[in-house]
């Protein structure tokens, strides 16, 4: 396996609707931004691409990936489409990583998009809910916020997590986004604002849930040799991991916790795992990525995290899955300020899905773009201000998650210069 | 040779719904009826019509599924059908005040995951007869069935026991 580097990235400003540009043009905009950031890179240098988009329903176009490939001027080079629900972007990143690591390509573009404004919000929720078992789950009341609400009800029951702790995630992420010009929904909120917004599914309110978006992102990955030619600020991918779980929540086992290197069996005496309260796939992905990266204690060896906060509850659950704290401590973790911009490990310093938006196929790649800029120390250049720059960031983790924890990817990036 | 003026597509009165002119945004209708087979899950749906809640059990490892599956996810063995008890306990719940478009008219509705004695996995259903937001983990519930089956998993629902 060869070392793989991220050399450049670009994203569009995520928005509720961007009818002026279709999916091809949006990706082109993100791609051109990335190309402009590494002027030595030519189209000829690019060996191929991986396309990331979740739903053909939203696009109203099958095989949209090849249409982007063509629009970017990359035909007849290799390309493929990746689909894994909400984790599509993270999986696309890892697929591009594989193309370089295997030696098949020296430069690979990972691009992604989603155009969710093409239907109304509730029809969009229906499309998303079709990503649940259509025999047993969808017809009973197919609604993703409902599924996550049931998961966090159990989390609250097991661990005493509170709605105020969940709201704290919303306050933090919307607040961080105030300084992110790419974000769709920056806002200065209070815990009270979150709790007083409309109830969607007990206990999740509108401000506990991310919004639908139009947007695109592109990331350029390269071999060591090409990376060093293209940029003096390459970022190395030092660990990748992927986990899965049963589509139906009903089928999740109630067994033993999968332990990370810094945990002991005695930490979890009576906990039935993962049940519906935790994401076994997230823990598995983190474990693999840490093993590859040689990370023994993520609390001390990761400088920031961009994770998949489609719901405030899933951010809390994910702190635990990736080992920022023990299972059951996620609520207290956010409450303590540990995940704040100036906390022990800033989580979603750029606003996360809650505030940036969640154009599904672009989301996991957005995280890669922001992590790249953090590690390069170029947030100021790209955001126009350095308020969200994590000081002296050497290592960051990105985490992409498909509903209801079915596919989860974790990738660890490190400053390579 | 035919009269060229008569060779044309007939004009109709159908128009196009236009939301915006620049960019031009139109309404595009799309609808489909699937020919959906329940395939190996068929006995569950047939069971609902007979007022039975069917799960499945792996004869090799004994793992019992409250939401049936034809093969065991642990050992890969073919499972056997078993009838589940009609009473269970709420493992978790939520009340949905919004929903997917297809379910909006039914809001608010309460979803529960049900635990059954002797089953290793859960079952997703709706809880009726409890005020929105008032379900409780640990509540005893019992299954009721629609008299006229629709062959949908909503043919069964739960009420407080």
Task: Tell me what the structure shows.
The complex is a heterodimer of chains A (417) and B (161). In chain A, strands 3-2-4-7-1-8-13-12-11 form a nine-stranded mixed sheet, sandwiched between helices. Chain A has a domain of 116 residues: 3-Layer(aba) Sandwich (Peroxisomal Thiolase, Chain A, domain 1), CATH 3.40.47. Chain A is built from 17 helices and 13 strands. Chain A is globular and about 55 Å long. Chain A starts with a strand and ends with a strand. Chain A is of the alpha+beta class. The model of chain A has no long low-confidence stretch (mean pLDDT 97). With 161 residues, chain B is mostly beta strands. Chain B contains one helix and ten strands, in the order ββαββββββββ. In chain B, the strands form three sheets. Chain B has a five-stranded antiparallel sheet, with no helix packed on it. A three-stranded antiparallel sheet of chain B has the order 4-3-5. In chain B, a hairpin with a 6-residue loop joins strand 3 and strand 4. The longest helix of chain B has 8 residues. Chain B is elongated, with a radius of gyration of 24 Å.
